[in-house]
What does this fold into?
Amino acid sequence: MNCEEARRLLQEYAGRELEPEQRRRTDEHLVECEDCRRELALVALLVSSLDSRPVFEPSPGFSARVMGALPRRHPVPHPAWTLFLLPVLGVPAWLFRLQLGETLVRLAGWLGLHGTVSLPRPAPWSLGQLGLAAGVIVAGTLALTALGGWLYWREFEAY
It folds into this structure.
């Protein structure tokens, strides 16, 4: 046994908590090493000093006060919200895409970018394009729900 191994075991040695084989090996090292014997004397003094002190019980509600004083982590919404929010926010944005585009062009004009921003008028969508858009919305909703679920459960694992 070297000094590093012995020093890791000194507190348990002083408290008589070592297994017999570890205690024997530590005894052998202490016979040979003056530095570790001095450190054992300090550890034994500390252990006996702490053992003679009374143990205080915390007041009622102590844990709740400590937990309440800890900074809160950013709350992660439940993943089911994405099933609700994506269509609620996405459908009006798609329905009013022309008005949103015109608003962006007007905003660019107010910012002094007049004439630099223009949006083409979209052509009517075919049935295939509508199906593709619906598929993208469904796939996006499922992907966001999966990501939200992963973040939600990861948040609970932290506690």
User: Anything to note?
Assistant: Residues 127-157 form the longest helix (31 residues). The mean pLDDT is 77. The two ends are 39 Å apart (CA to CA).
